[in-house]
Amino acid sequence: MSIAVAAPPAGQPTRVFFGPAGPRSAFRVDADIAEQDAAFLQMLAAYRGHGGLWRESEVLRRRQALGADVTPDDQAIRFDWGGSTWMPWFQFDARRGELREPCRRVVDELAPFYDGWRLSLWFVQPNVWIHGCRPLDVLAEEPRRVHEAARVDRFVAAG
């Protein structure tokens, strides 16, 4: 799916398409890329007040410096964007670098049905099961409520 725009966004390649009437002058951007960029910006803003988003390599260095046991299959939320793998810092204990148990429980519920993108977005979007609050905002104070919301969303996703 593509959308036409008057000029290419900064950093996007210019594409000219040839059709039956010859070259068209409209610039085009893949809608999938535009949607993914918008989702990344949404997450970047939402996670800023909760430790931010970090490239995976920086998270691993930071966690190791705190003495955490870092294993490749540690259930941490991660997603790819812009040629890098990104991880929200909120999921780790700031003093020890270990994955926080309330976050692990949510990931256990949703990971079979949600990829890293959807998991990351799930935490920053209002959730009807917690009265329109964002799971990220209430996880520390009400981990059980957030876990229950994840469980309901898992049942919905499973059909």
What does this structure look like?
The protein is of the alpha+beta class. It has one domain. It has helices at residues 31-48, 56-65, 101-110, 116-124, 135-138, 143-158; strands spanning 2-5, 18-19, 22-23, 27-30, 53-55, 79-81, 84-88. Helix 3 runs parallel beside helix 6 (143-158). It is globular and about 40 Å long. The two termini are 27 Å apart.
Give the arrangement of secondary structure elements.
Elements: E1 2-5, E2 18-19, E3 22-23, E4 27-30, H1 31-48, E5 53-55, H2 56-65, E6 79-81, E7 84-88, H3 101-110, H4 116-124, H5 135-138, H6 143-158
Helix pairs in contact: 3-6
Structural class: alpha+beta
Instruction: Please state how the strands of the largest beta sheet are arranged side by side.
Output: 5-7-6
- Continuous helix count: 6
Largest beta-sheet characterization: 3 strands, antiparallel
Domain count, please report it. 1
- The average pLDDT value, as a whole number, equals 84
Number of strands: 7
- Helix content class: 40-55%
Strand content: 5-15%
pLDDT < 50 stretches: 1-8, 13-28
Overall body shape:
globular
Distance between the termini: 27 Å
Rg over alpha carbons:
19 Å
